[in-house]
């Protein structure tokens, strides 16, 4: 209370006046704001609060009131940043970001061999949307692969138009009698160019040579071109071992030639053998000949168990080794006791 003294017409008059406290403009934090520029407010005045652009209210009353003692009422009003949707992955590229709230940033990159169309970054806006759509990563174009003279290019997938994309591969093939010199594989690189094309050169081989105990499919005494072939076979009873044909290679040499391997004879005089599933006495095995790599079995005795068993042995180029367990019977044993031979008794 405050007293004032006034002098009116010679009289002293005392009056009482009342002065209310006022509120200063509130200091707002946490991204809260208010309208207007007024600096002082009378008690009882209400102020409407709102969130700054890019923020959303989450709790508490949105008004504060100036009290009689010049203090604003408390509020739990709060504002949080708006959130943008989570970005989707981009094909043939990567994205990097820490958050998706207002003012957050996404950075985009493309993998090697791809170029970016669109913006390389985006910012989360006050509206809750990203400032730019995600970019695309487009493969680098190379055009058609160079075709070598006397050759061709075979792509690993269908090609349409005049362009090819990064990562496409192809192989080079030369038309005979030309041979390939250089890298057979071609690739559209990240720089937009194809790997170096090879050359196609004429290649010839000298006349092929005969093989011992064999013959060729041709007797021509001329040079043979790249990839030309000559077949071989053996005179009877020799057996061909190795490839049946030889090919003129790109280095001007012939591929590996076969050889002719000789037959074997079974060097026993008395006893039975097993040949091609047939059991027979050696004297009935006519002609006494086992071809190269063929298998024949002789019979051995298991003396402990008193039973017989067949032991196989293989003919290798004219040599047939008789197993050590084989015991050839004497003439008397073979003639008088043939039923007791290992081939004739119970088999183990």
UniProtKB/TrEMBL annotation:
InterPro entries named among the record's database cross-references: Compl-Cell_Adhes-Reg, Sushi/SCR/CCP_sf, Sushi_2, Sushi_SCR_CCP_dom
Domain Sushi positions: 21-81, 82-139, 140-202, 203-262
Pfam families per record: Sushi, Sushi_2
Keywords tagged on the record: Disulfide bond, Glycoprotein, Heparin-binding, Repeat, Secreted, Signal, Sushi
PROSITE patterns membership: SUSHI (PS50923)
GO molecular function: heparin binding
Cellular component GO terms, alphabetical: extracellular region
Domain of life: Eukaryota
Signal peptide: 1-18
Disulfide bond sites: 23-66, 110-137, 205-248
Subcellular localization(s) per the UniProt record: Secreted
Job description of the protein: Binds to various kinds of negatively charged substances such as heparin, phospholipids, and dextran sulfate. May prevent activation of the intrinsic blood coagulation cascade by binding to phospholipids on the surface of damaged cells.
Protein name: Beta-2-glycoprotein 1
Organism whose genome encodes this protein: Crenichthys baileyi
Lineage per the UniProt record: Eukaryota, Metazoa, Chordata, Craniata, Vertebrata
